[in-house]
Amino acid sequence: MQVLKITKATLLILTLFSVVACSSTSDEADPPVPAAIAGESGIDATTRRSQELEAEARARAAAAEERMMQAALNTAVFYFDFDVAEFRPADRDILTFHARELAANRNKSIRLEGHADERGTREYNIALGERRASSVMNYLIVNGAARSQLELVSFGEEQPEDRGQGEASHQRNRRVVIDSE
Asked: What fold does the segment set 77-180 form as a domain?
């Protein structure tokens, strides 16, 4: 019986100590309230942040696209290989930006000036310059420009960019120039 009284007393003392320990206050600041308790679930916060990041990425992509477009629109000379009327595949993206600009601004018009180097007859070079300008014109039309926005002229060999005699000079003379009116 004595053991039973000691056990009961020990349990009573332990219970009192635990109540006292739990009821003590601390001087620490209250911890921040989690988003779920504050009215926004963790999923909502994650979704909101994900949407913010996506919007920032779209804005950066749009700014990069705008810079690329401005650089492309500043490119107005396209060079051709010897005796070839098709523009180079590397020029497609730049010409696409020109076509988009024309499609967006129907009041804008440009002149496409075809040129050739001095090799070949005058008549042949006039025709070659015209074919070069036509290939650029057709690409612009297919990509959104209106035919009424485009004027085509061929100078053949009459207006060389470089009067030298080497291949480098000839290369600079085989071109189509976009002249904004």
From this structure: 60s Ribosomal Protein L30; Chain: A; (3.30.1330)
Task: Give strand pairing partners of 85.
Answer: none
Residue stretches of the chain with pLDDT short of 50: 33, 35-38
Q: How many Å separate Cα 63 from the centre of its chain?
A: 7
Domain regions of the chain by residue span: 43-74, 77-180
Query: What local confidence, expressed as pLDDT, does residue 83 receive?
Result: 93
Query: What pTM was computed for the model?
Result: 0.67
Average model confidence (pLDDT) for the chain? 85
Nearest to 155 by CA among 112, 100, 102: 112
Alpha-carbon distances, residue 35 vs 32, 46, 47, 54, 106 (angstroms): 9, 11, 13, 22, 52
